[in-house]
C-alpha cells in the first residue's frame, strides 16, 4: 500500500503554487509476435493482474485512485453552470427541421464568390471545394450529383485495389450511392432541392447506424450482435437535408485507439503521407475528407477521436458540448464522455453540418438544460468586432509540451496574428492536476465502454478483437467501482478549475496534438500495435473536451518541415460552439496561410485526380 495523500478542496488550492509536470505515459511499444505474447500474458488470470498492477503503478494510477482522499462529491456526468450569452450570433431551434436550421446557417455565412469554380488555373493555390461550391455547380448545371457519384465510385475502386489494403470505407454499395445521387439530381432538375446539403457527399463512421449498412465498429463481429434497423438520429437529420451518404468509414476497432490502426480491414493511410497514420479513432472519416472525396464525414469523439485525426490530416474537426447532439443509434450511446460530431474540409462546412445534426435528446434536455444552440453571424461587422473581444487562455508550459517545437511555434504564431489582426488578448492561465485528468478520463471511458460491450462479449467474441483492443479491455477490467467513483470526484475538481478559468477567458487555446502524424510500422499492419508514448502525445491536449464535456474544434494552422499538418485546438465554455466556430473561421480566413495539396487527393467535382 502506498502512502495516503489528502487533497485540499479545489476551491482552496493555491494556483500560484501549481507546478506543471510533463506528461509521459510509461508502457511498452509492441507489434507483431511480442504484442501477441504480451496480450496473452495480460489476459492470463494471475500474471495478467500482476502486469496491470505494475503498469498502473508506473503511471501513478493506484496513487491517484486508491491512495488519495478526494474531498469533492462525484460528478457522474458533466454539470454546467449557466453561461453568459455570446455576441453576434443567430439562435437556432432544436425542435425545428434540420433543413430549416441549415438555411439559417447559410444566412450566417459571408457572401459566396463562385469565380474560383469556373477558372481552371493550375497555378492557383490549392483549396478544398466547399459545400457551397458543389451547390453552385449543381444549380448552374455545371455538373450533377450523378456525375459526381461516378467520379467518387471510380476513386473508391482505386483505393480498394491498393496493396496493402488501406480502405477508407469498410461498408460501401456503389448502387446505393448512385440511387441517392440520382434522386438528388432529379430534385435539382425540378428545382426542389431540400437544402444546401442536397447532393453533398458525406461518409459515416462505422460506429454510427446508417441504413442499409451494418455497424461493425471496425470489428469482424459486432454486426452479428447489433442489427441496424434505422438510421442514427444524426444520420437521419443529414438524410432529410438531401446528403448523399456514401457508406461507413474505417476506424480504430471499437474506437479504442488513437492511431487508426485496424488489422481487420487494413489501416487507412494519411493522405498527406501514406506511410503515416491518420490518427484515430475516426481515421477513415478524416482521410476521406482530406482526400477530397467527401465534403464532410461524421465521427465520434470520446477521447479526441474527431480532433486527433482532423489535426493529423489537415482538416477541421468539431466536438460539440456533451449533450448537444443526440447519441441514439451509436455504438456507445450511454456514456458520459463521447459525442457525435463532424469532420469537414473548412470551418464554413463545419457550421452547415453542425446546424443539421444538432439537437439534444429528450433525456439530456431535462438533465443538462442546454442553452439554445447558436451560430456566429459571419456576415456582420459586429462579428469581426466579436473576434477581437475574445479572451484567449494559454497555459504556456502545457502549450509547449510537444514532441517538436515546430508545433508550438506554429500555434504561437497564430496567437500573435490574432492579436495583430483582430486585437485578441491572450491571458496566461494555470490548469492544475492535468495528470489526474488523464487518469479520470481513462477510467471513465474504459469503464463505460466495457459496460456497453460486456453483454456482447459472449461466445468468446472479445477474443476475435484485435490485439491492441484486447490489451485495452484487459486494462479496463482491472478498474473497480471505487476507481470509477474516485474518477468522478476528480471530474468535479477539474470542472471547478476550468469554470474558474472561464470566468477570465472565453476560449482555452492549445495545439490539438503533441506530435504530427506518426509513422506506421510495417509489422503493425497485420497484428496491430500498442504504443502508449504515441497515445500520450496524441491525447495530451484533448481530454478536457471529453471528461468535462466542453466544445472544442481543431483547425489546421500549417505544416511542419516534413509537410505534415499541424492543428490548433480551441476549447470553449459549455454550449458556446458559436465562439469557437467564430475564432476558427478567423484563423482559417486570415491567419493559417495557404493549404498544401495532399499526396492522395481527388477532385470529384471536376473529375480529376490531382
Question: Would you mind describing this structure in some detail?
Answer:
Helices cover 40% and strands 14% of the residues. It has 610 residues and is an alpha/beta fold. The protein has a domain at 89-111 and 128-434 and 497-591: Amidase signature (AS) domain (Amidase signature (AS) enzymes, Alpha-Beta Complex), CATH 3.90.1300.10. It has an 11-stranded mixed β-sheet, with helices on both faces. Strand 20 (602-603) and strand 21 (608-609) form a beta hairpin.
What secondary-structure arrangement, pairings included, does this model have?
Blueprint: E1 5-6, E2 29-31, H1 32-43, H2 47-58, H3 61-65, E3 68-69, E4 89-91, H4 98-107, H5 115-118, H6 131-139, H7 145-160, E5 169-171, H8 174-190, E6 201-205, H9 222-225, H10 233-240, E7 244-249, E8 269-270, E9 273-277, H11 283-290, E10 296-301, H12 307-313, E11 316-319, E12 339-344, H13 347-357, H14 362-368, E13 374-376, H15 381-389, E14 391-394, H16 396-399, H17 405-422, E15 425-428, H18 434-453, H19 467-476, H20 481-501, E16 507-511, H21 524-527, E17 529-531, H22 532-539, H23 543-547, E18 552-559, E19 565-572, H24 577-590, E20 602-603, E21 608-609
Parallel strand pairs: 1-3, 6-7, 6-10, 14-15, 14-16
Antiparallel strand pairs: 2-17, 4-13, 5-7, 8-9, 10-12, 11-12, 11-18, 16-19, 18-19, 20-21
Helix pairs in contact: 1-2, 1-19, 4-13, 7-8, 13-24, 15-24, 18-19, 18-20
Protein name: Fatty acid amide hydrolase-like isoform X1
GO molecular function: N-(long-chain-acyl)ethanolamine deacylase activity
Transmembrane segments: 33-55
Amino acid at each position: 500500500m502506498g502512502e495516503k495523500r489528502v487533497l485540499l478542496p479545489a476551491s482552496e488550492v493555491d494556483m500560484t503554487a501549481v507546478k506543471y509536470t510533463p506528461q509521459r505515459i510509461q508502457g511498452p511499444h509492441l507489434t507483431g509476435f511480442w504484442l501477441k505474447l504480451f496480450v496473452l500474458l495480460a489476459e492470463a488470470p494471475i500474471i495478467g493482474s500482476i502486469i496491470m498492477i505494475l503498469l498502473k503503478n508506473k503511471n501513478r494510477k493506484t496513487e491517484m485512485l486508491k491512495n488519495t482522499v478526494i474531498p469533492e462529491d462525484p460528478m457522474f456526468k458533466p454539470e454546467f453552470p449557466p453561461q453568459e450569452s455570446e455576441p453576434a450570433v443567430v439562435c437556432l431551434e432544436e425542435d425545428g427541421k434540420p433543413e430549416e436550421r441549415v438555411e439559417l446557417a447559410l444566412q450566417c455565412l459571408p457572401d459566396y464568390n463562385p469565380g474560383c469554380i469556373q477558372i481552371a488555373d493550375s497555378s492557383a493555390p490549392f483549396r478544398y471545394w466547399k459545400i457551397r461550391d458543389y451547390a453552385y455547380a449543381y444549380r448552374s448545371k455545371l455538373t450533377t450529383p450523378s456525375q459526381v457519384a461516378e467520379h467518387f465510385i471510380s476513386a473508391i475502386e482505386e483505393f480498394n485495389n491498393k496493396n496493402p489494403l488501406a480502405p477508407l470505407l469498410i461498408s460501401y454499395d456503389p448502387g446505393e450511392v448512385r440511387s441517392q445521387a440520382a434522386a438528388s439530381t432529379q430534385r435539382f432538375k425540378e428545382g426542389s432541392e431540400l437544402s444546401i446539403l442536397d447532393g453533398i457527399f458525406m461518409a459515416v463512421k462505422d460506429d454510427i447506424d446508417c441504413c442499409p449498412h451494418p455497424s461493425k465498429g471496425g470489428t469482424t463481429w459486432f454486426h452479428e450482435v447489433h442489427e441496424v434497423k434505422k438510421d442514427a438520429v444524426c444520420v437521419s437529420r443529414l438524410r432529410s437535408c438531401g446528403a448523399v451518404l456514401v457508406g461507413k468509414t474505417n476506424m480504430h476497432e471499437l474506437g479504442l485507439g488513437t492511431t487508426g490502426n485496424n488489422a481487420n480491414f487494413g489501416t487507412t493511410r494519411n493522405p498527406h503521407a501514406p506511410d503515416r497514420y491518420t490518427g484515430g479513432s475516426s481515421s477513415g472519416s478524416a482521410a476521406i475528407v482530406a482526400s477530397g472525396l467527401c465534403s464532410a464525414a461524421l465521427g465520434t469523439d470520446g477521447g479526441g477521436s474527431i480532433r486527433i485525426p482532423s489535426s493529423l490530416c489537415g482538416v477541421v474537426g468539431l466536438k460539440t458540448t456533451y449533450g448537444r447532439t443526440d447519441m441514439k443509434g451509436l455504438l456507445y450511446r450511454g456514456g458520459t464522455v463521447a459525442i457525435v460530431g463532424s469532420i469537414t474540409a473548412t470551418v464554413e462546412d463545419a457550421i452547415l453540418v453542425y446546424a443539421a445534426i444538432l439537437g439534444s435528446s429528450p433525456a439530456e434536455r431535462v438533465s443538462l438544460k442546454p442553452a439554445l444552440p447558436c451560430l456566429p453571424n459571419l456576415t456582420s461587422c459586429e462579428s469581426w468586432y466579436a473576434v477581437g473581444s475574445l479572451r484567449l487562455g494559454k497555459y504556456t508550459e502545457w502549450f509547449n509540451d510537444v514532441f517538436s517545437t515546430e508545433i508550438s511555434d506554429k500555434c504561437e504564431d497564430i496567437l500573435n496574428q490574432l492579436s495583430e489582426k483582430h486585437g485578441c488578448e491572450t491571458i496566461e492561465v494555470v490548469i492544475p492536476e492535468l495528470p489526474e485528468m488523464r487518469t479520470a478520463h481513462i477510467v471513465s471511458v474504459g469503464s463505460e465502454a466495457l459496460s456497453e460491450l460486456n453483454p456482447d462479449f459472449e461466445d468468446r467474441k472479445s477474443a476475435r478483437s484485435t490485439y491492441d483492443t484486447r490489451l485495452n479491455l484487459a486494462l479496463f477490467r482491472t478498474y473497480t467501482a471505487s476507481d470509477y467513483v474516485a474518477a468522478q470526484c476528480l471530474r468535479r475538481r477539474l470542472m471547478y478549475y476550468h469554470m474558474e478559468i472561464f470566468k477570465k477567458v472565453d476560449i482555452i487555446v492549445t495545439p490539438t496534438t503533441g506530435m504530427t502524424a506518426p509513422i506506421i510500422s510495417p509489422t503493425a499492419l497485420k497484428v496491430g500495435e500498442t504504443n502508449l508514448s504515441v497515445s500520450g502525445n496524441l491525447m495530451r491536449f484533448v481530454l478536457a473536451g471529453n471528461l468535462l464535456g466542453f466544445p472544442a474544434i481543431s483547425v489546421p494552422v500549417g505544416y511542419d518541415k516534413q509537410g505534415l499538418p499541424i492543428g490548433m485546438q480551441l476549447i470553449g465554455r459549455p454550449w458556446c460552439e458559436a465562439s469557437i466556430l467564430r475564432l476558427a473561421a478567423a484563423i482559417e480566413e486570415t491567419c493559417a496561410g495557404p493549404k498544401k495539396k495532399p499526396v492522395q487527393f481527388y477532385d470529384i467535382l471536376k473529375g480529376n485526380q490531382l
